[in-house]
Amino acid sequence: MNKLNSSNRYVTTSIYGVRMPIITQGADIQNIISDTLIEAKDASYQPLTLNNGDIIGITESFLARSQGNYVSLDDIKDEVSKHFPTGDVGIAFPILSRNRFAKVLEGLAKGIKGKAYVFLSYPSDEVGNAIMDEDELFDSDINPYQDIMTKEFFYNKFGEYKHPITGCNYIKMYEDIAPNIEVILLNNPKDILKYTNQVIVASIHLRHRHKKILSKQGASVIGLDDICNTPSTSRGWSEYGLLGSNYSNANMLKLFPRSSMEFCRELQDLLKQKTGKHIEVMIYGDGGFKCPKTKIWEFADPVVSPGYTDGLKGMPNEIKIKAVADNNKSSPKDAITKAIEEKNKGNNAYALGTTPRQITDLLGSLCDLTSGSGEKGTPVILIKGYFDNYLSQNPIK
């Protein structure tokens, strides 16, 4: 058996959740983050040192909260009223969520003068939350590509369905938010125009397609990303508008952070000044991963990473070590060494089979799984050795 020499380095990529002080609006989190990371080298438990090539991930809510990036339901109402001062309005394909969309819907409904039609896709929303039993749908005579279902028709056909994780009947929950809300189940965006030609596209990852289809049909269309998306002195704002927003309290929503790219570059410069190290920085939200059991794609933010430094652009360029070893059984270690060296020259013959994902998407998922959204108190993640390979020895100091 081929063994590594005992003097070789055994640990490469490692990830740490870093505790931070509880922050409030206006907090200077660039200095808080940099000072905490520097102080961590003297910690009695697992002291941390910073090296060139390390990566710092900061959860989007940490930045947004420091920015005071909040809007009220009345802010949403006022913006919707400006776009659609009269008539009925359709709200197209929102996700099923208590903390992500229920309060958004409340604000939208307040600003709509007529009926607020909420058009839900079925058998699930775009991130996999079920609104009905998928097997029951395909055992029925319903054609999901063309059939429209009212609430009454749906209940008569399938009964009142509760989400298997939250236990919510989202049709009832959404209709109970305001008296002018009516839920319709359909999948063809063009069918929305049978009810109204004023539409707010509430889908996240499919929003560009839905806007394009509806606009071509002559509808007056905006998206959640067009609401609260411009600078204001009276309320919060984000380049993504209401996309990526989250429940704060009964009357407020926290938005996705703004100016994330600038923040990352500034923090990178500050860390360089204080430590002399070149460290990559990114903001992360939901990781782009799917639960195989529930079929839910836990990705309610518009992007995994709204901001990052230049060293995190692009996709990984790595060889597939097992492919090299399987095809060079006589001396796999030598073959792997040669393949890495060739790859570094621009010739990667063993990339086949590596997952084509952006570096920020991979790192964002890693950060999100590490920090969680509960009680760990680690809104900052330190990743070391991510860009190492099989030949890497001592970290770059």
What characteristics describe this protein?
6-stranded mixed β-sheet, 5-stranded mixed β-sheet, 397 residues, 14 strands, Rossmann fold, 12 helices, 60s Ribosomal Protein L30, Chain: A, alpha/beta, 2 domains
Any overview of this molecule?
By secondary structure, this protein is of the alpha/beta class. It folds into 2 domains: 19-67 and 260-316 and 357-384, 2-Layer Sandwich (60s Ribosomal Protein L30, Chain: A); 70-254, Rossmann fold (3-Layer(aba) Sandwich), CATH 3.40.50. Helices cover 31% and strands 14% of the residues. It has 12 helices and 14 strands. It has helices spanning 29-39, 60-67, 73-83, 98-111, 134-139, 151-158, 170-175, 207-216, 260-275, 321-326, 332-344, 359-371, and strands at residues 14-18, 55-59, 70-72, 89-92, 116-120, 149-150, 181-185, 198-201, 220-223, 246-249, 252-254, 280-284, 307-308, 380-384. The strands form 3 sheets. It has a 6-stranded mixed beta sheet. A 5-stranded mixed beta sheet has the order 1-14-2-12-13, with helices on both faces. Helix 1 (29-39) runs parallel beside helix 9 (260-275) and helix 3 crosses helix 4 (98-111). The longest helix has 16 residues, at 260-275. The protein is globular, with a radius of gyration of 25 Å. The chain starts with 13 loop residues before the first strand and ends in a 13-residue tail after the last strand. The model has no long low-confidence stretch (mean pLDDT 90).
Describe the structure concisely for a colleague.
The chain is of the alpha/beta class and about 400 residues long. About 30% of the residues lie in helices and about 15% in strands.
